């Protein structure tokens, strides 16, 4: 069985985001100022989430905190050691416009023969095979020769 190693790129962080904003042609601020503003913004987002409120990320989506109180079960293997403790989660919801943009980009990429959004978000081989079987993805000549 052929195993491929996937290299994951680090997620976008404040330092990288500040550099990207600084490199824009319409930016008039220094990287340090941008980084400080982003740090303040995300500190406030964290505070809002800790208070149980929803955070909106303009143009992207929203983060909503949820609390959970798990049940105890009569089957010991279904319970955690020390009991099932209450916990919290954060649900991310994409805005409709962002969902549509991502879907359009994905479909456009499939028309060009690439199954994914980018190098760090690609379909695995099983997904590619399903897309090929459904006629949504054309096989590139290189891949045809390998098979």
Structure report:
The protein has 147 residues and is an alpha+beta fold. Helices cover 41% and strands 16% of the residues. It contains five helices and five strands; from the N terminus they run ααβββαββαα. Helix 1 packs across helix 2 (31-50). It is flat and about 55 Å long. The relative contact order is 0.07.
How would the global form be characterised? flat
> What is the mean predicted local confidence, pLDDT?
85
The count of helical stretches stands at 5
What is the percentage of strand-forming residues? 15-25%
Rg, Cα atoms, Å: 22 Å
List unreliable stretches of 5+ residues.
1-5
Strand/helix succession: HHEEEHEEHH
Derived from helix and strand composition plus strand pairing, the structural class reads alpha+beta
Percentage of residues assigned to helices? 40-55%
The beta-strand count equals: 5
Q: Widest sheet: strand order?
A: 1-2-3
Sheet having the most strands = 3 strands, antiparallel
- Report how far the terminal alpha carbons are from each other: 14 Å
